[in-house]
Each structure stands twice: as C-alpha cells, then as structure tokens.
Amino acid sequence: MAGESQALAYQIGDNFTEAYANNVYFEASAWDMKLIFGQLDQSGGKVRIVQHTAITLPWAQIKLLVPWLKGHLEAHEMVHGNVRIPANVIPSELPPPTKELKEADPNAEAIYALFNKIRNEFVSSLK
User: Fold this and answer.
1) What is the pTM of this model?
2) CA separation (Å) from 64 to 3, 4, 93, 126?
3) Which of 39, 60, 105, 122 is deepest in the core (most CB within 10 A)?
4) Which sequence spans correspond to the domains of the chain?
5) Contact status, residue 69 vs residue 95, Cβ threshold 8 Å
6) Among 48, 26, 31, 30, which Cα is nearest to 39's?
7) Are residues 41 and 52 in contact, defined by beta-carbon separation less than 8 angstroms?
8) First-to-final CA distance of the chain
C-alpha cells in the first residue's frame, strides 16, 4: 500500500571502516555539509588535529539527524549522568560580523545572534 513504512534491513558493506574522532570540522555549502573527523595528537610536543575521515550529508539528512542525536545524548545522560565538558574546550562567543560581512550578507547579524544564542544555551546547560 502506498505510504506504508517498511522495516529497513541494515548490512555492513565490504569496505566498512570504523574510526575514533574527538574533533569535527564543518564545511557547509548550499547543497550539503561536510563533516571532517579528526583526532587530537600531542606527540612530538605539538598540539594538532590529525584529520582522517570526511562524510558529506545533505541538509535534509542533517535535519533528520539533529533531533536523534539530541535524544540519544539526553537518554545517555538520564542513565549515566551529565557528560562533563572541560572548560578549555567550551566555545567562545563569536566575534560580531564585520562591516564587510554585513554588507555582503543581509543575514549576517541574525546568524551571529543565532549562533551566540545556541552557544549561550549550551553553556547554561552545563551548570
């Protein structure tokens, strides 16, 4: 019947890989967002991120993913307690958009306000 949902069967492909990441870098375009995963490396007296994997997701997939990630995090915290975030990795407030950016993008002020609101809500949730 049209519109009925069918159960999905998952299968691990022959080229499936698994990796650990404690850093994610974002590259956004009009079509999608690339998530570039990496890991902190402090060997040799240097602090750097070694990037190892990139996954590109269309915006619709990201919109579907966000509430599920939030749900999994909240469920984990219900069972195990709050995930602690070290103070030195809490993101700073964004600098205000420059005059040039505001002239180039009429949404610059609103985007600045949005990201700082999200950041401030995140910081408040850590207390």
Assistant:
1) 0.82
2) 19, 19, 27, 25
3) 39
4) 85-127
5) no
6) 48
7) no
8) 50
Element containing residue 66 per DSSP (H, E):
helix 59-80
Torsion of CA 36, 37, 43, 47, to 10 degrees: 60
Provide CB contacts within 8 A for 126, sequence distance 6+: 82, 85, 90
pLDDT digits (tens, 9 = 90+) for 23-82: 999 999 999 999 999 999 999 999 999 999 999 999 999 999 999 999 999 999 999 999
Report CA Rg, the chain: 19
> Bridge-partner residues for 27, per DSSP?
34
Helix or strand run (H / E) with residue 75: helix 59-80
φ/ψ region of 21 (left if φ > 0, alpha if ψ in -120 to 50, else beta) reads beta
Q: How many CA atoms lie within 13 A of 71 on its CB side?
A: 5
Residue 34 β-bridge partners = 27, 56
**Do the Cβ atoms of 71 and 83 come closer than 8 Å?**
no
